[in-house]
Amino acid sequence: MADPSIDVDKLSYEIFSILEANFLFGYDTRKLNSTSPPAGTLKPSVGKVRILSIDSAGATDGLLAAKSLSLLEASLRNRSADPDARIADFFDVAAGSGVGGILAALLFTRGKNGRPLFTAGDAMKFLLENRRRISSPSVNGRFRRIFRLRESKAERLYRKTFSECTLKDTLKPLLVPCYDVLTGAPFLFSRADALETDGYDFKMRDVCLATCADATAVEAVEMRSVDGKTKIAAVDGGVATSNPTAAAITHVLNNKQEFPFCRGVEDLLVVSLGNGESDSGGFGRRSMTPGPGDFVRIAGAGVSDMVDQAVSMAFGESRKSNYIRIQANGFNSGRRSPMVSKSSNASETQRLVAVAEEMLTERNVESILFRGKKMAERTNADKLDSFAAELIKEKERRKLCVFPTVLLKQATPRTSSATMSSC
Question: Which SUPFAM superfamilies does the entry link to (predicted)?
């Protein structure tokens, strides 16, 4: 590997060249990304930062997002002609809440061979096989105090899956929210923070346990950072933010150390994956008497939709090419499909898989800038396939970029020292 200081020196020189051209020779910085700059002027070129955001469980227990990721990865492999292509190869940042946090952790944690622990297909299989353990992490209604004597099924599952991996062992910047009862505020597990200090580095198994902790349980999940200095008492990431897209965008726009040339949403490519409209009464008709857990899901769904609308408005006209949202938002909720009927002999898991597959064939209701909403022109599956093409183009475009689009902080395993290297 090349000496990281060389990349930094090269970047510093190129930045100085821009400033010199701008102030000494009147170079127009608005032309940095123009395709036909004036003859004799410097044409720095940078790519777009690619963000993946995954919602908390929703109506499909995470299977809509898992199915979407599997479809996206298959499309990326087909279009790139690389049978080993992974989701992590085509994104710079991942954010996930609740079960979305687990999916992000599976896809972006580094395995022993330096590649992601899971493919998207394997991550979906993981969810299918362990759905009950993930959604029921408590033991007799209590959490961590009992775990010291007896681990829950969820904790055993995460320990087996992630072993001793921490946030530092993720391949790309990762953001996973939960709600900290001790401070009464959202808490965001972040790879960038972990690389700054061990006080914000947590075991990946604890990150997953925290973001999926049942918000209606008796006690929150108590955990500490790897150095023991930071303590939190966590509940469901969906309580903090069920749709972490805005958190991911804010992280990128304010993290100039890792994303030095990202100036606004026009410099982003964002995929936001929902998990179906929260529905307290099953698919189709809503219950008129929702329980405590249903209220949490309903509130989360409302916040998720608000985030989507706000982000969509922020992108403006560029949202057609720079932002896609995959969600089943109830437009066809009044229609019952035979394959998702509760009278079916299929298992609950099979039913949810069928629901996720059907949702990908539907068209969403999308927000229009200052004009309300309308039906999308393309199905969810079509949008994913089209965006795969954009991700391929972006990866190829970076080969011609003058500047590195992303400068990921790196750390020596199990230490807090960080250096810079281009990506």
Answer: FabD/lysophospholipase-like
What's the Cα-to-Cα distance from 305 to each of 83, 100, 338, rounded to whole Å? Answer: 35, 16, 28
Global confidence as pTM: 0.79
Cα separation, 42 vs 36, whole angstroms = 11
> Contact at 8 Å (CB) between 208 and 271?
no
Token digits of residue 388? 């795969």
Residue 14 or 383, more confident: 383
Query: Residue 230 burial (CB < 10 Å; 0-12/13-18/19+)?
Result: middle
Inter-CA distances, 31 with 26, 45, 92, 127, Å: 12, 10, 25, 47
**pLDDT in the model for residue 349:** 77
Tens of pLDDT, residues 113-171: 999 999 999 999 999 999 888 865 444 344 344 344 457 888 999 999 999 999 999 99
Round to whole Å and give the CA distance between 205 and 30.
45
| Catalytic site residue from 53, 56, 68, 97 | 97
Question: Which residue among 236, 267, 279, 385 is the active-site one?
Answer: 236
User: Residue 149: CB partners within 8 Å, gap ≥ 6?
Assistant: none
Question: What per-residue string of b and e applies to 58-89 under the rule 16 or more CB within 10 Å gives b?
Answer: bbbbbbbbbbbbbbbbbbbbeebeeeebbbbb
pLDDT 10s digits, 327-348: 876 544 334 443 444 444 457 7
Q: 236 CB contacts (<8 Å, ≥6 apart)?
A: 56, 98, 178, 179, 211, 212, 213, 214, 215, 296
Q: Tell me the CATH number of domain 44-137+162-278+291-330+345-405, given options 3.30.1360.120, 2.40.50.140, 3.50.50.60, 3.40.1090.10.
A: 3.40.1090.10
Between CA 276 and CA 330 the distance in angstroms is 8
Are the CB atoms for 231 and 21 separated by under 8 Å? no
Mean pLDDT of the 290-303 span: 55
Confidence at residue 345, expressed as pLDDT on a 0 to 100 scale: 40
Residue 17 among the catalytic residues: no
Is 236 tagged catalytic? yes
- What residue spans of 270-415 are helical by DSSP H? 292-315, 319-322, 348-360, 380-397
